Amino acid sequence: MEELLEQYMDFLTNVKKSSANTLDSYRRDIKKYIRYLESNNIDNIGGVSGTTVLNYLLSMQNQGKAASSVSRSLASIRSFYQYLHRNHIIDSDPTVGVQGFKVEKKLPEILTGAEVDLLLAQPKCVDLKGYRDKAMLELLYATGIRVSELIDLQISDINTEVGYIICRHNDKERIIPVYALAINAVKEYMEKARPKMLASEDETVLFVNVNGEKLTRQGFWKIIKSYKEKANISKDITPQTLRHSFAAHLLENGADLKSIQEMLGHTDISSTQVYVRVVNNRLKDVYSKSHPRAK
After folding, report:
1. Domain membership flag for residue 98
2. Which of 37, 77, 121, 127 is spaced 20 to 30 Å from 268 by Cα?
3. pTM exceeds 0.70 for this model
C-alpha cells in the first residue's frame, strides 16, 4: 500500500503539479488511512468496501476530529481511490456513495481598518528584520496574495517603478497593483536590508530569513503571530487573515467582485462571493450596534 501511495504522490507532483501544501496534506491523510487498514489486518487497499471507509471516518469522529478534518480526509482518500481505479489497479472505487459529514462553513475572520493599521505599524525599521517584516506585511495586505506566493516571489516579480507584482500560482500568473506605501517599504528593504541578509549573491528570492535563505511558511506564520501579540489584537490572525481583509476592504470601498476574483487568483467566482456575506454581516452588526432604534 505504501508503494501505491508513493506512485500516487509522484502522479500529483509531476502530472497534476500539486502544491507542496496539497502533497503534504494528501500524504498525511492517506498514510493515516493505511495505518487504520493495517491495524484491522487489511493489507489490500482495493479489498475494502464503502463500509470500511465509513467506519474509518466514524473512528476519526469518535476521536474528536472536527467535521472539516474528516471531510478533508475523505476527499484525500477518494482522490487516491479514483487514481487507482482510473489506472486499473483496483476493480472498483469503494468511496463511491460515501458521504462526508456536514461541515458548517464559517465566514472568514477579517480585521477592521484600524486593526490593519495597528498590525502594520508593529515592525520597526531599526534593524534588518524590521525592514523585511514591514515590507512583507505591507505587501501581503496590498495585494491579497497567499503566503506561499509571498515567499515564492522573486526579485524579478516586482516592479517598484510602476508599482505592481507578478504572482504565479499553479502555472498561471496574474499582475496585481501595489499601493505606494507598500512599494516604498519593499524598496527600503531591498536597498537597506536584503543585501546584508543574503547568504549568497545568487539568491533570487525576494524575502529571505535571518540565515539569508528563502523564508518558510512556518517562519512567516511565527512572524505574523509575534506582531499580533505586540499589537494586542484579540482576533486570531494568520497570513490568510490579511488576504481576507484585503478582499473585504476592497469590496466595502466599491471594488467589483470580478476584479477582486482576478487579484486573488480564484478560478471560481463563488470562492470570491463569500466576501459579500462577510461585508453584509459587518454592515448588519454596525447597524444593530449604532442605530438608536435597533438597540
Report:
1. no
2. 77
3. no
